[in-house]
Each structure stands twice: as structure tokens, then as C-alpha cells.
Amino acid sequence: MKQHRYEEITMQARLDVMATELGPKLVKHLVASHRAVTASSVPQATLNLVDIRASQINGCAPCLDMHTKEAIAAGETSVRLNLVACWREASVFTEPERAALELAEQGTRLADGAGVDEDAWQNAAKHYDEEQLAALVAQIALINTFNRLNVITRQVGGSYQAGQLG
Known about the structure:
Elements: H1 22-38, H2 44-58, H3 61-73, H4 78-83, H5 95-108, H6 118-127, H7 130-152
């Protein structure tokens, strides 16, 4: 029986954005925007799923680390978290959550096609009112912004503690 040896990998970010003059100002406004979205009537569990799915697509370790730990702290189950990447084939998501996940995928993969197709939009509109749709679109845009900041600068995931950012 072959044993696996795991070696500690030391990773380092390319840039500490928060050590720049711009970084804290930028993040302050992004976090304020995020707070506005979380104050909407879209369930927090749905927003967490959107964050996780976009972060999976974008390969953003820090955001996956943060949002999965926050979802667990909020009572999300490991079964649902483990199935987010293949939500279409899983029976554990509600129809509104599935519509939000589809919107998140298409809104994240803009370069792969024609953007968000009419079917995905109409399906989301069946489950969410205009205020909620605005919140979902804003959340998708925000998580993609955070993903891109982290991926471009190679931020490292793994050390986030639930509740760390307030």
C-alpha cells in the first residue's frame, strides 16, 4: 500500500494590496457594497452559494476559504457545500437556489459566450423580484471583483477564520 507524503507548500502573494494607499480605500467601498447586498431579502444561504460557485469557477482560494467557512458557521451542511460544483446533478438545492447558481455561472463566464441568456434570466425572475435580482446581480459582480483581485495577485487561501472580517 502506497503512502502519500504531504509537504508543506509555502506560497506568497505577488502583492499585498492592503499595504498600498489604494487598497484599503478600494476594499472599504467593496465591503460597503457587499453589506448593502446582504441587507437585501435574498437569503444569506443563496448569496453564500453564489459566492462559492463563482469562486470555484474563477479558482479563487481565499474566497472559497472564506465563503465556505462562513457558510458552515451560518449552518450550511457539508453535503450542500460539497455539491455546489455539480449543482445541476444534485437534489439538495431549491429551485430558487438553482436559478441563482445558473445566473452566477453565466454572469461569471461572460467571456465564454453571449453573457447571461434569456432563459437563465427569466428563470431567476420567476423566483426573485426586481430588488432581489438587483442584489443577485450586484453580488455576482462583487464576488467576481474580489476573485479577480485575489487571483491576479495570487492571494493565498487556507488561513481564514469564520467571523474574521466582522
